[in-house]
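A quick aside before the break. I want you to see a complete sequence-to-structure record at least once, exactly as it would be stored in a machine-readable document. Don't worry about memorizing anything.
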Amino acid sequence: MSGAERIAISTRELVKQFKTRAGTVTAVDSVTLQVRRGETYGLIGPDGAGKTTTTRVILGLLKRTGGESEVLGYDSMRDTYQIRDRVGYIAQQFSLPPDLTVMENMRFFADIQGVSARRQKTRIPELLEFAGLTPFTKRLAGRLSGGMKKKLALACSLVHEPEVVLLDEPTLGVDPVSRREFWNLLGNLRAEKGLTIFVCTPYMDEAERCNWVGLLYEGRLVAQDTPDAIKQMVPGRLLEFVPSPFLPAKERVSEIEGVLEVQTYGIMLHVFVDDPERRRREIEDALRTAEIAWEGMREIEPRMEEAFISLIGRQSA
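That is the input. The structure line, written in C-alpha cells, reads:
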C-alpha cells in the first residue's frame, strides 16, 4: 500500500466561509490534516470551533470555499456518491424514526444504503449483537435511553460495511457510563475490523482514547499530534491546590518568579512552574504571608484540558 493509499481522510488548507448580513464569517480557516487508515482521529474543541462544519465539508455536504478535501482518495466536492457508499456518518442531530422498532430502523437504513435482503439477514443480527441491542429488537426507537439510541445510530451507520465512519459529537448529552460503553464499541471496531474513525467531540477526556488528536479553536488547528505529545506541549510542571479566598490567591501566585502559567479548574488553581519543589515552598510562603488559606497542594500530570487551554492562551497572546 502506497503512502497515499494509507490515508483515509485528508484536507489541505481547507477553508469554509459563510456570507451573513454582517459580512463574511470564516468557520474553517486553512485546516490541514491527515487521518491514516485504521486509526481513530479526534477533532477536539469547544462549541463553535468549526468541528461540524469541517466534517460536513469533508463529506461533501457543504461546499468548500478553498483548499482541498478527500476521503479514500475521492474528492469531497466531485465524488460524493463514491464517498457515500464507503463512509458511515452520524450527524450531531442524527434522528432515528421514533415510531420504528430497533429492527425496523436497521432494515430501513440498510434499504437506504442498498444492502441486499440476503446480506441483511446476517449483517443486521451481527450489528445488533455487537451493539448489545439484540434483546431490544421490538422496542420502539423513541422509547430507548439516550445511550441505546447512540448505539443504534452507530449500528445503522455501519450496516453497509463502510471503510470509514465519521461521528459528529456522538456522545453529547449522554451519561458517563453510556459514553464509556460507546467508546468501548468504537475501540472494538478499530481493533477487530480495522475501521477508520473520525470523531468530533467537545469532551477533552475523549481525546485520550484517540490515536491522533487535532485541537480546533475558532476554525483553526491549534495543534495536532498524539494525546501524549500534546500534553507535553504545556510549559513546566503542574501544581494543583484549593485556595481560599480564590481570586486573591490567583493574583498573588501569578506574581511569583518561576510561575509560568495559572489556570482555573473549578475551585482549584492549576499552576505551571519551572521547579515544583522550589516553587511549592515559595507559593506556600506567599500565601501564608498574604493570610490566604489553601489545602491539597500536590503535583499532578497535565491532562488534555490543561494543554488545550494553555495552547489557546499562547495563540491568543
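Two observations worth writing down. The mean pLDDT is 92. The CA atoms of residues 61 and 80 lie 8 Å apart. We'll return to this after the break.
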